[in-house]
Amino acid sequence: MIVTFLGHACVKLEQGGRSLIIDPYLTGNPLAAASADDIQADHILLTHGHGDHVGDTVAIAKRTGAQVVGTPELATFLGWQGVADAVGMNIGGTYDLGYAKVKMVQAFHSSGYTLTDERRIVYLGMPTGLIVTWGELTILHAGDTGLFGDMKMIGERHEIDLAFIPIGDHFTMGPEDALTAAEWLKPKQVVPVHYDTFPPLRQDAAAYARALEQKRH
Fold it and tell me: What Cα–Cα distance (Å) separates residue 124 from each residue in 79, 91, 128, 178?
């Protein structure tokens, strides 16, 4: 499997000629490692409804025909924006993509889309984490979240090969809580996400990686 971190919380997974992208915030992202115009995907998975996660979903879905998977509120909202194939699911549920399965788990955050011109925020359901099972690999995208005790249960019930964990602080966990999250989730490998994109999120990811390595030994 090819796993690519594209900046902020955006991740692309590719294997066997199929691909999916999670939280495709690329346009307007100063640290984006790809252009939305270059993205090809069979599915777009969304953790929650904030603009820096929904990102280029509508444009990519319209251009590629990718199916979008998110909470029911988010799927409905995106359908109103012209996404032809949007599937709503909820926490605890599992959806079969055909080549992989995605399970929604809880995250502790907020979820809403800001319509600046209207001075209105659209509520888009609960925030989530995503567990993707693809062949023999299990990958967790924790979404935007603070630390919470049920991460222990998630780690006990799923043998996680790779986890994407936010470390940016301010809007999500900071590095210290993210170390505990990694301890509880027990993934074989960790990739820190949701840091450095904006000034409040400045973090030393290398220092986090070193601290995680020390904690494991």
Answer: 13, 13, 11, 25
Q: Is the pLDDT of residue 3 over 80?
A: yes
Task: Give the CA dihedral 74, 77, 83, 88, nearest 10 degrees.
Answer: 40
Does residue 190 sit in helix, strand or coil?
Answer: strand
pTM of the model: 0.97
Q: Answer whether 187's CB lies under 8 Å from 161's CB.
A: yes
Contact 170, 200 (CB under 8 A): yes
What pLDDT, in 10s, does the model give residues 59-110?
Answer: 999 999 999 999 999 999 999 999 999 999 999 999 999 999 999 999 999 9
Nearest to 158 by CA among 105, 209, 216: 105
Residue 168's φ and ψ, nearest 5 degrees, are -70, -20
Q: What are all long-range contacts of 111-115, with beta carbons under 8 Å and residues at least 24 apart? A: 111/48, 111/49, 111/50, 111/71, 111/74, 112/49, 112/50, 113/49, 113/50, 113/51, 113/54, 113/77, 114/51
102's CB contacts (< 8 A; 6+ apart) are 45, 69, 89, 94, 95, 130, 131, 132, 133
Q: Within 10 A of 49 (CB to CB), how many other CB atoms are there?
A: 25
